[in-house]
Amino acid sequence: MKFKYIYQQICSHISIIIVAFIVLSLLFSHYVETLVYTNKAEELTEYGENIIQDLEMRIIDREVLSDYSHVLSGREIKYMIFNEHRRIVYPTGGRIILKDEELNKIKAGQIVTVKQERNRFDQTVTFVLLPYIKNGTFLGGILLTSPISGSREMISQINQYLWYAGMIAMVVALLMSWLLSKIHVNRIKRLQKATSLVAAGDYTVRLPSSNFDEIGELGEDFNEMVEKLHQSNEEIESLENRRRQFMADVSHELRTPLTTINGVIQGMKNNMIHEGEKEKGMQLVSKETNRLIRLVNENLDYEKIRSNQVKLMKTDIELVEVLEIIKDQLEVLADEKNTAILVEVEENVIVYGDYDRLVQILINITKNSIQFTENGTITLRGIAGYKETIIEIEDTGIGIKPEEIQNIWRRFYKADISRTSNPYGEFGLGLSIVKKLVQLHDGEINVLSKKEKGTKFVIRFPIKHRQD
Prior knowledge:
The protein has about 475 residues and is an alpha+beta fold. Helix content is about 55%, strand content about 20%. The chain is rod-shaped and about 165 Å long.
């Protein structure tokens, strides 16, 4: 059986209020009843002490006692005076009915107070016994009685008002409980609805959050969870798109050399290639085979670097020597583009890194600059910075469009798709490998470029750490 949360809240609130009201009502009623009877007993005691005081001063006679009776009867109080033998001295004769315990107490000079007595009198009364002792001798006492009907009426009236107040309080409490429960339930329903949307794949939903209570904190935790789910989902989608793009790029890169190789083989097999052309065909097959090998090697290298399987052997390296080596290795390629390579290094500039990987980084970037620079210059600079070594590779080539700068680090990306016949970097893996290698050195690489005004790569390597 389903029991709605709002009704659970209302029932729990009302139950607590009812229990609390009953307990408080009982305590208050008992307190009022005790207070009324105590006040009545104190009043009787005060009248009795006044009468005894007059008796001790011998200024009292039957007329005075009659006046006392007349005054006290107006307050529904009766009194009688008795001697040490329990005989009634005033107002009439006879014996007073006292318990031995009560008699012993007043003989000892104590005042006896009974708040409710039902058996010894015509009606239920509150009575007080006061001793009359003179010169240490017990001479008798005085009994004052008052019916409790008036006190009962007062207590009943107080209880009636208490009941009315309780009913009003219950109605107000019920309304407030319903209102507060409704607010909490609505907040929980918003959370339930948002959870359903997230379960359906909507990661843009957000809840109003606050630190007011636990539900507000739960809303903050929910928003944080959804944000992480949203980021994870975007990352998964990005990885899936990259996977599809990778498969498409690899297929495209493999198709051209394989088609060429297959065409040459089929031509030789069907004797469609003349003897004089076979040598040329074999060279073409060899060239395309080497191209496939390079593609596989670059992909393997990229995956090793990306998964941090490459172990760097860092040492202090004279930067000028490395840059001169890069210049010597690539000068032939640069000459084909009528481009000059210049080296500008400050004195005693040291770079802390893996020698082989540093050469790989600089060769890839410089080849990229050669690819897009004709009749210009490429400058290799080395600068000693604050706690870092800065390497700049600047060309005067065609530059890169601003919207393409972030894409050059992507795998298989080519700024100029038509350029696939250059000897190096034809697969678009060079710069993606460069960035990974720089990051493995705890460095950073940035690109500054303007269309038709050249490009500058700025690489920053931190200096050697003390713990190294």
